Amino acid sequence: MKYGVHAGLWQVKWTDEMTPAFKAAADLGYDGIEVSLLGMTDEKAASLKALGRDHGLEITCSDGLAPDKDITSSDPAIRAAGVEYLKWAIEATAKIGSRGLAGVVFGAWGQFDPLNKPERAANSAQSLAQLHDTLNTFDVNLGIEMLNRFETDLVNTAQEAVSLAQAAQSDRIGVLLDTFHLNIEEKDIHAAITHAKDKLVHFHVSDNDRGVPGSGHVPWDQVKTGLDDIGYDGWIVAEMFVIAGNPTSADLNIWRNIEPESGDAAARALTFMKATFG
Asked: Does the pTM exceed 0.90?
């Protein structure tokens, strides 16, 4: 198992310079750090590879699609723009030195159209299928993240995420599960994790309030036994958003301080992850 922390814990804006986050993660003893591709450029991607090397950190990547790049859209031009963006994101992930890109890659974040859900899901699968060659070329795996009902209506459960990944028909495309979303949407978190089986390529942890794992009421025994039962030994990344008043926090609806300080939250999260998952 490898333990990472999302750089967004320290970022005020997605475009912030990331050296402080890399240093903090390295000093605390994390194996890696996750960076968002929001606001990323080719030049910044290349610099992050060196930054990770200098701090002894592996890097994982996350991203989300904007409405004008929504691959679920009925507009072929918008879908095409989304596919081209995701191809760029895969290449940027490789430039950073990462082999994993996950997040809201199945459609635009915060968009809802439940009456047309089957058509949108089909559009998403067909678009994702076009990424297979690019994923192979750059040796990158893609993870579809299930989100809670307040962020999407398309992929709310592990089963929906797995079904979409299977429909994309690429062994490079799997799913990202996140305890924050699992806690909201799944009646049985253990069953949700075991359903993902071989399609699980990435895993995020935080507690029910997006704070330090172990500080709330997420059923961590179900999480641990689920991961154990499928033999998962990949990344577990603490994706916490805890400080109100930042543009990044507003994106995630953090309206009050969840934890008193980012560094303390990161330290407590790593201690909990090692104690829980080994």
From this structure: yes
